[in-house]
Amino acid sequence: MWSLSNITGSIDQWLNENFSSAWALAIEMVLVGIAMITLFAVLGLILVLMERKVSAYMQIRLGPNRVGPKGMFQTVADTLKLLLKEGLTPNGADKLMFNAAPFVAMVAAMLLMAPIAFAKGVQIWDVNIGVLYVTAISSLSVIGILMAGWSSNNKYSLLGAMRSGAQIVSYELSAGLALLPIVVLTGDLSVSEIIASQSNGWWIFKGHIPVVISFVIFIIAVTAETNRAPFDLAEAESELTAGFHTEYSGMKFALFFLAEYVNVFIVCAIAATLFLGGWMPLHIGNWEGFNHIMDFIPSSIWFMAKTFFLIFLIMWFRWTFPRLRVDQLLNLEWKYLLPISMVNLLVVTAMAILKWHF
Amino acid sequence: MVEEIGTTETGDLIINVGPQHPATHGVLHLIITMNGETIKKVEPHLGYIHRSIEKMCESLTYRQFIYVTSRMDYLSSHINNHGCALLVEKAMQIEVPARAQYIRVLMDELTRVASHVLWWGALAMDVGALTPFFHAFREREMINDIMEETCGARLTMNYMVPGGVMFDIHPNFQQRVKQFITDFRSKIDEYDELVTYNTIFKARTVGVGVLSKEDAISFGCSGPVARASGVSCDIRKLYPYEVYSQVNFKEPILTEGDTYARYLVRMYEMKESISIIEQLIDNIPEGEFQAKTKAVLKPPKGEYYSRVETARGDFGVYVVSEGATTPYRIKFRSPGFSNLSTLDQISRGQKIGDLVAIMGSLDLVIPDIDR
Amino acid sequence: MFLKDYISEVYGAVKSLLTGMRRTGYYFTHHKEIITEQYPDNRATLVLPERFRGEVVMPHTESNEHRCTGCTACELACPNGTIKIITKFDINADGKKKKAIDTFIYHLELCTMCNLCIQACPTDAIKMAQSFEHSVFDRSKLTKVLNKPGSKLEEGVE
Amino acid sequence: MMEPGLYHILFLSTALFFTGVYGFFSRRNLITILMSIELMLNSVCLNFIAFNKYVWPGKLDGVFMTLFIIAIAAAEAALAIAIIINLYRSHQTIDVSSGEEMKY
Amino acid sequence: MSGSTIIFYLLALITLGSAMLAVSSRQIFRSAIFLLFSLIGIAGLYFWLQYEFIAAVQIVVYAGGITVLIIFSIFLTAKSGESLPKQKPARLIFSALSVFCGAALVMLQIAGHSFPVFSGDAILPTVGNIGKQMLSTEQGGYALPFEVISMLLLAAMIGCIVIAMRSKPLLK
Amino acid sequence: MTREELKTALLTKFPDLVEEEGGEWLNLFSTPDSWKQTVHFLRTDSTLLFDYLFCLTCVDWKTHLTMVYHFTSTTFRHILVMKVKLDRNAPVIETVCDIWKTAEFHEREVFELFGVHFNNHPDLRKLILPDDWVGFPLRKDYEDAVNMIKL
Amino acid sequence: MGPASMIVLIIAAIAFSVIAILASKILVKASHNKQKGEPYECGIPTQGRTWIQFNVGYYLFALIFLIFDVELIFLYPWAVSVKAVGWVAMVEIIIFFFILFIGLLYAHKKGALKWS
Amino acid sequence: MTAGQEKISFPGQVHEAPGGGILTTALDDVINWARSNSLWPLVFGTSCCAIEMMSTAAPKYDWSRFGFEVARATPRQADVIIIAGTIVNKMAPVLKRLYDQMPDPKYVVAMGACATSGGPFFYNTYSVVKGADHVIPVDVYIAGCPPRPEALLHALLTLQEKIRAGGKRERINIDGNKF
Ligand code: SF4
Ligand code: SF4
Ligand code: SF4
Predict the structure, then answer these.
(1) Residues 6+ apart with CB under 8 A from A336
(2) Among B178-187, C43-52, G21-30, H82-91, which stretch is predicted with the lowest mean pLDDT?
(3) What's the 3-state SS for chain B?
(4) What's the maximum distance between 2 C-alpha atoms anywhere in chain A?
(5) Does the beta carbon of C11 lie under 8 angstroms from any beta carbon of chain B?
């Protein structure tokens, strides 16, 4: 059966046969680096195109369909264009910070790639604190935004940065609290363990209502954490013309854009891993035949399918809802999400101790 | 006391919004003094689209100046033209044929619906929902097509002429309008699903930018803005022109005076306009569509004033005639101008996000304000 | 009771949001609702209403005759001086001097398609065309001379 | 250069600590002083972890110490900033030299 | 010298360097950012020591929380644009000297002191172990401190609110 | 009130008002001096209650300027047109924006387009024209060789 | 592959960005004019300075957030071992939450969690 | 003939493709392809024409088919200004400033009679700029008041042609029916 894991495995094997282990490791690192960069670029292209197509269909339009077959290359053209666009730095800006900010955003986004299991056994680093790791690193992205907003020396940027600062830190809480139930149920933080624990059924099915609630809360929280509508106050078009990246142009802007979309991908991947069983195929009770068919679909496909479904969900939000006001945003977090998820956590704990989940 | 949180003596930020800004629907320029996110003062600066139309009209004949007015409030261009045509007719004592009157009113109401539909989309976009904007244009395009078929232009159709309308209606007109009505009825419910009942939208609009009845009167507000504050000011009811006295329609009056009330009033007006159209579309009388008029119009010396109800409110044309072929002095009383002047009052103490919603609900058309 | 309100509030909110999502989801799945007309491709089939006002033209018969007598009524009617008519006197058959147009200058970049000139013209010499693709790199290209070179006044038009 | 071990880390943390001290002395702005304090706390945490790893891997006390230090540091930072802002509101400045005359 | 050595020195460099920048930069916003980098460097060291949990905690609390808070308070209390006033060189030199002496002293101490070498089986600082010990109520367990911490946090929160929301500023 | 009643009511109260014949509604000329208490009476008197100022403008008769105010009442729905003749060289009149808030913007507009000066106006600045603008464009004798292309 | 991967990823990210930005620097010929560098504010010259002392209405949220953040980090080890430890852990966490909940309610009562 | 001469004889302003020598290389073609296919307009509508611009963005004439829909509110990220509406003397400096603040390459489309020549407000007005090209260099003009959405699309396609041509007039090939 074709699968991503086999490929990587064979590469690893081949390397270890033909080179000394150190060299093999080095080459692997290089390969991983290149792979990640390509993944970044490709993800950026695909997600932006997807976003534009989805929005178009929801708005009874056609969306890009001229550049390349069915408009496939629209985003390619855009990326090239941005590459060919002058990236200017405002005079008043704090040059160092202004230019460093996109890097911070990128690095944060890239580091989040480490613990994600793209397929059976395809994982860069199965860090033993997997979930916590993600929470930690994703809290770094706010720094990039704050740097950008402050250093642009532009009032819109400053306001946008302030807003997203408060927003991201607030929603970290409920994001963290919402994934704790899974940790409680699994008794382990590492991604591989969590996936393994779902071999006989995804948590969202096994965990009854409480897990569903925490799933919803998690989705809401990550939508806010990635500054997506309806929580896109950081770049609220109609209020602060473009928010914290008002002054960014050309490639630097593109990097922010890319980081944003990759973040979306990652949080969706995490959600898929925690609640939808990562690359685990869908198994239903004891329909042997059905489960076998499911097993034939490569695990990477499963993972991608789940992730992209969640991404689509988030896009769906964006193209349906109005934007919240900044104080309402914080109220939502502190009055609703946080208490609910706390109570929810207790319920799940009781459930876990009583072994009520199957 | 919550105001004290983080309030410092010098925490004010002065920020320009507009002239080029997605929220200002054109080229309004607001200088906003903010404390954190809270607005302390809004100072409108106009004139970025001041096209000196009043001066220009002093050198245009009574036939010519009508077309310029469709560039003022371009969203209700028909109604503007209508007002001017009414004025010329009043001055020249021209009797407008019944058919022309029916056609005019139909066109007015279609324009009103088109304008409100666009406003609906724009408001939704201001509060951050992008899809309704595009859905709104679907209906607007239907109306545009009807207009284009009859008037020959999509936006600035110079259709009203002194003494009637420029052409007779297109043969398909009635049938297409009926088609449109049936479609639109179903679409309005979608609007409600998408925006009206949406909690986020309600949270953004209810209780935001409250305009008291006294202020509404004192600020000379008109149209939906005044009606949302409980002022009855529909020219079509108070001083009926053309056939408005014969159709029956309600004037929606709410008393909350907040953004959501303004929203509801307009939604209601759309339904009313549709019913007006329904009442008229089937019994357009036969006959002339244009009264016989002299080639050169010379209204007798005197002053004339005509008012019509545009999509934004009370649009008045004040003309001083010296008996020449061109007006001696012409003044357009534009509803937006008065409605805008309330902005500072009603947006103090709100968040900057609210300002956007408030401006959207005032439904400003800047060229109409600057003239 | 507090908790009850709290829950019902949350419930109502979620419900209203779901209604909205159902609507957009409907459009996402029903592509037949899409109303886009693909302009450059449908150029061949694109029919504009015959009343659409794209630009002012002066129809000429195949024998290169137009109906414009040079009465300048349109020039007077035009609110913004779009039309400039240069008249000349030519000798017609029975030796009488007669006013006729020399050049009929039409500034497309100024024209506002208000149709007043058409209405004013006593002889229907000019009419509105449906063409709308007037994009140029050089705005001087938009100033046109409507009467074809060497064209004459049609017989029997006064 | 030998394999880094306990001593390296201790040296590093010492350096860090005294960098903090330097900031503490040389700065007059309350916020920067707060930052210096954070630096010192961190160096201490680093020490705890180092000892725990190299000297007493049999226990986790170092880890817990660090955890609690971090927790207390956070609480302390929050309170400090609340106070700083309040000071600013009353005095329009957060400069220590000018803040000296205020007696609590 | 192996990769891990390089990484260690790299991290040490980042940590110390940005720490020094943080205490010396006169752009207060910049020094906040540098502080952040130095904290992240320390987190990196924890990773290097394979105390991942502590590292993550470090990032969450410091990078995610304290730095953001500090930046907010900078916006609230300082004209973040202009740089801080220059200090008297005398004070700088004095503090530099004292710091140098202190550092030298301590380092000598450390260099001189020899630490006992541990013998026996190590407990891995995995989250599981930490958790177990944290929750265990018997000897050596940290259940009580764990609860005490929550009290501390409560106190801190109430304190914050009381101070920050005091409607009229203290001593006017 | 009908036009006649209005006329009698006002002329008895303010004898110095002069009626102008013709026009759709009652036209009354006032004088800059008695202007303020006249309008105050219009707004406050319980039988008039002209609380809605729906048009405020100015006309330049080459000899003098005339301010034109259109009042109506949201309770009685009667309409009144007040006019004030102003000296063209030094046009000055009391502001009414303390009575009708809408007047604030309208008066600013008239101020910059006609050069009428309104006493006690909160901030009488240019509203529409650029701040460095000279001249009063809507006056009849306004000439602008640069921008205005006469047809 | 272990922690080294973090280094790899960081390097990858930075390399990616640097390459992209350098490429655009090389490829683009930029024009210059004196308004270009000024801050954008809807096409109007900006008034007053941006880096003024600026009041963040919601810093109080950040304060409270910090407290809860700390609480969160203590929850992780708890969550991992709660199943193993059992009811004791349950009890402890209930106390823990209870105390924090008091804080949250207090904040709510004092109006720290709402604006105007 | 050299590119220089060509540019002089070429109306409006076209950004020479970087490295573009006398001959247009394959690289230039790629560059121009990218640039012409991702024109992000600046949100800039002053009056009536803006409504028609919105209609062009709207479902019926959906300009996102060509990738124009990414309308940016800040000039830093925009490629083309569509001057939709009248430019008055007070607005002119703003327009200039916005144009100046756009990073290169940047293009301008003058939409409608007003932006092209002052249109209805050419005579007897004291405050209207008689054509936006008095303020900033314009690449493509559209007549009409307002131009219908197809006309705007046509203008944008014309602009694309122009960019693809990379400033080489003889490579431009525009007629309404061929695309
Ligand atoms: S259509 Fe109107 S503007 Fe155009 S030429 Fe005729 S009269 Fe003049
Ligand atoms: S076109 Fe008609 S109106 Fe104009 S000059 Fe010719 S004949 Fe006269
Ligand atoms: S060209 Fe016509 S439609 Fe366009 S802005 Fe000018 S007047 Fe309005």
Answers:
(1) C10
(2) G21-30
(3) CHHHCCCCCCCEEEEEECCCCHHHCCCCEEEEEEECCEEEEEEEECCCCCCCHHHHHCCCCCCCHHHHHCCCCHHHHHHHHHHHHHHHHHHHCCCCCHHHHHHHHHHHHHHHHHHHHHHHHHHHHHCCCCHHHHHHHHHHHHHHHHHHHHHCCCCCCCCEECCEECCCCCCCHHHHHHHHHHHHHHHHHHHHHHHHCCHHHHHHHCCCCCCCHHHHHHCCCCHHHHHHCCCCCCHHHHCCCCCCCCCCCCCCCCCCCCHHHHHHHHHHHHHHHHHHHHHHHCCCCCCCCECCCCCCCCCCCEEEEEEEECCCCEEEEEEEECCCCCCCEEEEECHHHHHHHCHHHHHCCCEHHHHHHHHHHHCCCHHHHHC
(4) 67
(5) no
Neighbours of A18 (CB within 10 A): 10
Chain-wide mean pLDDT for chain B? 84
Which residue is listed with tokens 């139930």?
Answer: A181
Dist CA B47 CA F127 (whole Å): 7
The CA distance from H82 to H74, in Å, is 14
Over residues A58-89, the pLDDT tens digits come to: 888 888 888 878 778 888 888 888 888 877 88
Any residues with CB less than 8 A from the CB of A290 and at least 6 apart, and which?
A283, A284
Residue B323's region, left for phi above 0, alpha for psi from -120 to 50, else beta, is: left
Residues of chain E with Cβ-Cβ distance to D36 below 8 Å are 23
pLDDT category of residue H178 using cuts at 50, 70 and 90? very low
DSSP chain H: --HHHHHHHSSS--PPPTT--SSPPHHHHHHHHHHHH---EE--B-SHHHHHHHHHHSSTT-GGGGT----BSSGGG-SEEEEES--BTTTHHHHHHHHHHSPSS-EEEEEHHHHHH-GGGSSS-SSB-S-GGGTS--SEEE-SSSPPHHHHHHHHHHHHHHHHHTT-GGG---BTTB-
Q: How far apart are CA A83 and CA A86, in angstroms?
A: 8
Task: Name which of B323-327, D7-11, F107-111, H9-13 the model is least confident about.
Answer: H9-13
H49 Cα: distance to centroid of ligand 1 (angstroms): 18
Among protein residues, the one with the nearest Cα to ligand 1's atom 6 is C117
Q: Are A270 and A221 in contact (CB under 8 A)?
A: no
Coil vs helix vs strand at E23: helix
Please identify every stretch of chain E with a pLDDT value under 70, giving residue numbers as ranges: 1, 78-87, 117-120, 140, 166-172
D87 touching B (Cβ < 8 Å): no
Q: What six digits make up the tokens of E55?
A: 């590292």
ipTM of the complex: 0.85
Q: How far is the CA of E43 from the centre of ligand 2 (A)?
A: 86
Neighbours of chain A (3+ CB pairs under 8 A): B, C, E, G, H
Instruction: Note whether B286 contacts E: Cβ–Cβ < 8 A.
Output: no
Ligand 3: residue whose CA is nearest its atom 2: H145
> DSSP 3-state assignment of D40?
helix
Cis amide linkage into residue E169, ω under 30° from 0: no
Q: Which residues of E touch D92 (CB under 8 A)?
A: none
Residue located nearest, by CA, to atom 8 of ligand 2:
C71
Report pLDDT for G116.
45
Q: What is the pTM of this model?
A: 0.87
Residue in the block written with tokens 């880390």: D9
Which is the closest atom of ligand 2 to the Cα of C121? 3
Nearest residue to H58 via CA among A53, B135, C25: B135
Proximal ligand: closest to the CA of C120: 2
The preferred substitution site among C51, C52, C53, C56 for testing ligand 1, maximizing ligand atoms within 8 Å of CB, is C56
H119 to A253, B75, C113, H132: CA distances (angstroms): 38, 19, 11, 11
